[in-house]
Specification:
Strand content: 25-35%
Radius of gyration: 23 Å
Low-confidence stretches: 212-217, 298-303
Distance between the termini: 49 Å
Structural class: alpha+beta
Shape: globular
Helix content: 25-40%
Oligomer: single chain
Number of strands: 15
Number of helices: 9
Length: 321
């Protein structure tokens, strides 16, 4: 069984930990790391191909994509073109586009009936100011659509600061993402979803004076066990986004848990606090499904071919009679 891990050419530590775990688990004949920057997508004469040097990626049994926000569209096309191959891929084609767009993430979760913060998006500063006047009263949160690790998250405590942020983002030609502030102690819960279960969870606490609990903004992890209700929300969020491997961030509020983000390229620092070897669990998970998935796809193709043949065989028999 052949596998590959697709990631950025910078070879992030988290991506390489997953690659190493897959290489060490003795479940694959070979495991290859493929920089997404070196992949070529091609269409010609009614056919399509996804190539890395002289290799066609459709020939792999397992493909684990780690697609960053800057490559979301390319990632979507790549996964879409591989969708009909026999390879097992734990990510649906639209997942990179959804998860790397904060508003599209919330819209998708909301459509699935999951709890999210009240949120509005506009490209007009005057419309955004009307939103602040009529729909969401400060304090509120404003975000950049593609921000990561807490970057691009701003807190407006009153109308004056909200309007100042709107004017600044408008000058920078940014979409205006306005989210209701959920009062809490400056912490959220990161849950790691693998398939249909949560395999690790930890609270992320913001540093003093900051509302952002992300590690990239100075927050820190504290081990915790989430309730079964919160774990269920995380699994449902992952399913709605279309990712079997992801991190789901949830805030506990006075009205219950609220999902604020889903990360399909989650970091592995949470392993240090929880003691869970997430890369190893991912390696065994994808290897099991790689074998099962290829067999199911082959069986499905067989039945599709036979179903097409049956009516013709019946017709031929009737003609002979």
């Amino acid at each position: 069984m052949k596998a590959c891990v697709i990631g950025g050419k910078d070879k992030s530590p988290s991506t390489m930990k997953i690659f190493q775990a897959m290489d060490d688990c003795n479940k694959f004949d070979s495991v290859l790391f493929i920089p997404i920057e070196n992949i070529t997508l091609g269409v010609k004469n009614g056919k399509s191909c996804v190539l890395y040097r002289d290799k066609d990626l459709s020939e792999f049994d397992v493909i684990v994509p780690r697609i960053g926000s800057s490559k979301a569209m390319f990632g979507y096309l790549l996964l879409k073109m591989l969708k009909d191959s026999e390879a097992y891929i734990p990510l649906k084609p639209m997942a990179p586009m959804i998860s790397h767009d904060k508003f599209l993430t919330l819209e998708t979760l909301n459509k699935a009936g999951l709890p999210i913060p009240e949120t509005y998006l506009t490209v007009s500063s005057s419309t955004a100011k009307r939103v602040v006047d009529n729909l969401i009263k400060p304090p509120l949160i404003m975000k950049l659509l593609g921000g990561t690790q807490g970057k691009g998250v701003m807190f407006a405590k009153d109308k004056q600061s909200a309007e100042g942020m709107i004017d600044t983002l408008n000058v920078l030609n940014q979409s205006l993402f306005i989210e209701k502030y959920i009062k809490n102690p400056g912490e959220d819960i990161r849950l790691v979803v693998l398939g249909d279960e949560v395999i690790a969870s930890a609270k992320r606490k913001a540093k003093k004076g900051d509302i952002r609990s992300n590690l990239g903004s100075g927050g820190k992890y504290v081990n915790c066990r989430a309730s079964s209700a919160i774990e269920d929300l995380a699994v449902r969020a992952a399913e709605a986004i279309g990712s079997e491997i992801c991190g789901v961030d949830i805030i506990e509020s006075s009205r219950g848990p609220v999902i604020i983000e889903v990360n399909i390229a989650l970091g592995m620092k949470i392993c240090e606090v929880t003691g869970v070897d997430i890369p190893k669990k991912i390696a065994y998970y994808v290897s099991d499904r790689g074998v099962h998935g290829r067999n199911v796809k082959r069986l499905s193709s067989f039945f599709e071919r036979e179903i097409v043949r049956i009516p013709k065989a019946v017709k031929d028999a009737l003609k002979k009679d």
